[in-house]
Amino acid sequence: MYFYIYSMLTLGVVWLWVYSRRDDLKKLMVWGGVAYIILMVSTFFVLWLASLFINVNRLIIPLYWNPPTLFNMGWVTGGVGVEDIMFMFFFGSCSAVIYEELLNKKVKKKRTKHHAVALAAFLPLTVLFSIIFNFNPLYNYLFPAFISSAIILFQRHDLIRHTLYGALIATALYFALFLFFNAVFPTAVSDYWSLKNLSGIMLLGIPAEELLYAFSHGLMWVSIYEYFNGNMVDNRL
User: How does pLDDT run across 97-144, given as a tens digit for each residue?
Assistant: First the structure.
């Protein structure tokens, strides 16, 4: 059952709906999706290189979950297949505009300097956590995301509201989409998630780790365009 690709195609429909609504957010959406792919794939590739020399806890598949994937790429790479790339693009893209879209905000022209520390810190932090900690590898992505978001808030106090509200909205929408996913594929979580490696905490059939992922990476990503490019969000609109 290729539920993963079906779910990503459904998410793609949501992406198209969001993309069609705001001409002023199209560039931001594409930037957010492509940048998220580059960050996550680069991190995964560096972890793979590190694993050739030292013990690195990096295999999302099968340690976190084990879904059927196109061309069996998930098993070949340990966690980066066609569906994962689609998810990275759609999640990164929608997260980057979720605050502006739902609260009808607009991105203003550059008013402050560029920042990149939060982005630059994520990769080495993920590698460090993957070397030190041997529990579920997903957590080795969560902690660096929280740290990177803290860096963003420290460097750009004006993005605090944007970041916190956006992360909560992104998590709520992720939760709603997962409920829909569970309704369509009611046995997928029990069949393909490695529940023995998870906390065991479930919210309406959704592993708590999924919501932690949505919140932590949403927290890092909802204001990443403004943070990196030096833009601001007009909260008066």
Answer: 999 988 888 887 677 778 899 999 999 999 999 999 988 899 999 999
Cα–Cα distance for residue pair 70/72, rounded to 1 Å: 5
The domain limits of the chain are 3-234
Q: What is the pLDDT of residues 8-18, one digit of tens each?
A: 999 999 999 99
